Amino acid sequence: MGSLHMERQLKGPFFTQEPPSRVDFLNEIGARIICRADGYPKPQIHWQGSDNKIVTNVENFRTVLINSTLILLPFKPAAYRQDIHSASMRCVASNAVGAIRSRDIQVRAGKTLFFGIFPFIIFSFIVFANSGYELESLVRCSVM
Q1: What is the per-residue DSSP string for 90-126?
Q2: What is the dihedral of CA 16, 21, 24, 25, to 10 degrees?
Q3: Cβ atoms within 10 Å of 87's Cβ, excluding its own
Q4: Are 92 and 101 in contact (CB under 8 A)?
Q5: CA distances from 60 to 10, 13, 30, 63 (A)
Q6: Domain spans, the chain
Q7: Which of the residues in the chain have pLDDT under 70?
Q8: 96 CB contacts (<8 Å, ≥6 apart)?
C-alpha cells in the first residue's frame, strides 16, 4: 500500500498580529507590545531600533520575551531614559523565504500628575516629554 506524503509549501512570513504605530504608557504601569507572525518555515521574530540594531533586554527597563513580546517595565520618573522611553522601533519577522518589518512604532512613556481630587471625580494630566521644546499632555478624568 502506498503512503500519502504531503509536503508543506514554503511561505514567506506574514504578520498575524502587528504592533500599533504608537504606544503611550505611564511610567508606573509599563507596557506590553505584541508582535506575531506566521509562515513556513516558522519565522524568527526580533525587534529593531531606529538605528537598525537589534533591541535587547535592558535590566530593570526592557525585556524581550521568548514569544517576541516586548515588555517595557514600570520605572521611577528619575530613571527615565530617552533611548528606551521615547524611542522608535519595529518588529522584524524572517525565515528562509524572506523577511518583513512592521510599521515604525513610536514608544512614549508619560508621567501622571494629579491636579485635583473632588468628590467622586479625579482629574489628572499625563505628561509626555518630547525631544523638542514642547510638552504634550493628556487630561484624564475618572469618575468613581
Answers
A1: EEEEE-SS-EEEPPPEEEEEEEEEEEEEETTEEEEEE
A2: 20
A3: 20
A4: yes
A5: 39, 32, 11, 8
A6: 11-109
A7: 1-6, 112-144
A8: 10, 41
Mind listing the pLDDT tens digit for each residue in 82-91?
999 999 999 9
Question: Using an 8 Å Cβ cutoff, are 75 and 60 in contact?
Answer: yes
Pull the grid cell for residue 78.
528619575
Helix (H, G, I), strand (E, B) or coil at 55: coil
> Would you state the cell numbers that stand for residue 1, as one nine-digit string?
500500500
Which residue stretches of 5-144 are H helix? 82-85
Which tens digits make up the pLDDT trace of 25-38? 989 899 999 999 99
Superfamily, domain 11-109: Immunoglobulins (2.60.40.10)
